[in-house]
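Ligand-bound model needed. PMT.
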Amino acid sequence: MIQVLEGRRVGLGVSGGIAAYKALDLCSRLRQMGAEVQVVMTENATRLIAPLAFQTLSGNPVIHAMFDEPARWNVEHIAFAQWVEVMVVAPATANVIGKVAAGIADDFLTTSIMATRAKVLFAPAMNSAMYENPIVQSNIERLRSLGYEFIEPESGWLACGESGKGRLAPVEDIVDRIVRVLGAGAAAGGDAVAGGTKGATAPAGTVATGVPVVAADLRGKTVMVTAGPTREYFDPVRYISNPSSGKMGFEIAREARDRGARVILVSGPVSLEPPAGVEYIPVVTTAEMRDAVISRLESCDALIKSAAVCDYRPAVIHDKKIKKDGRGLDIHFEPNPDILFEAGQRKGRTILVGFAAETDNLVPNAVAKIRKKNLDLIVVNDVTQQGAGFGTDTNAAKIIDPEGNVHEVSLTSKREMARIIVDRVAGLLKTCGE
Ligand code: PMT
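Prediction:
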């Protein structure tokens, strides 16, 4: 099995903004996804972050001076510009954007941008007044009109002590764009599945700056994730469903992808963009989700079932819209298949993680579900707790194993919750493989 970015050549330009420290995380993720990363820093960036940190994470000497002895590139910037398949500048300062817009090429980074035919992505990060400055905005417009792409900064707390738009886009979003531009992975039309695992697994840890290094502990593994609600129609325009947004499952899929897994994401109807590089299988009903999951189960090392599945479906589906006649409407429901139960019967060596949305008696209900459905873990949300469960960006949960051990995770982002769950899955897969 190869990874989503296996062997893809990414140039990472780092210019002199405080968000440069986040580029360490970006560099690490790209490497863990199989990319070859060559970092180019501006001189100002080297004052904020030591090139050695990027060298350690990328596994390549960092280029930062125009006239250094060529460490790797024969004709330096030209060879580099031809080598990259995509160049991403993160963070991109107002200065670097302005220079490129004006055709100035006075250092290695700007010269390479000028010399490359590859797609160039800018991820701006700067003070909000600078970002809103009409000069910066017109430079961005000009570059956009010339085919350069921008990954919009976020609004929020800025290093200068103000709040506003100018914070570097989340690293996960930058990774998504790179994967999309490269057309890598199943979702983007590439082929993420082939023979033989390549390369060594890098250990998890931190670099000197304290920035976490993403582990590639799922390399060679296939993880299926279900997300979102299912819908059961009883006429062409009406259905029953639930408020699942898919956020929890999509974050799990993204996290598993970033840690090197081939990811299959089976989702009910949601309004989220699937993470690039995952194999995306949209479904509507519980029966469709069942078929999608069960037919692929055997090829998976783990199934994480965060979808909120309709337990019932209308016994009759009317083919025409039911007319309103002033009286009540009786709909008879029949049970849907329990996908997780069926998966538990057939799981073999596949690790099964269930979710449970509960309102009371959390632990006893969850332990009963683990046993009934033959699970390796269950993640229980108290959906009555503020900020947890359906639709929110945050979640709180108890993660319970078959022995009844409870790991309490207090309110945190769904992104962080996904990391904790995927950590547990990676641990179980490691134990299985030993
Ligand atoms: O999508 P978000 O807005 O981010 O919200 C996240 C969430 C609240 C939906 C998620 O965290 C969650 O709790 N998902 C499971 C909800 C649920 O359906 O729980 P349950 O107790 O009804 O089901 C238990 C498990 O069996 C679940 O893993 C479910 O996917 C599975 N199941 C249930 C019924 C069925 N017919 N087939 C199943 O496979």
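The chain is about 35% helix and 25% strand.
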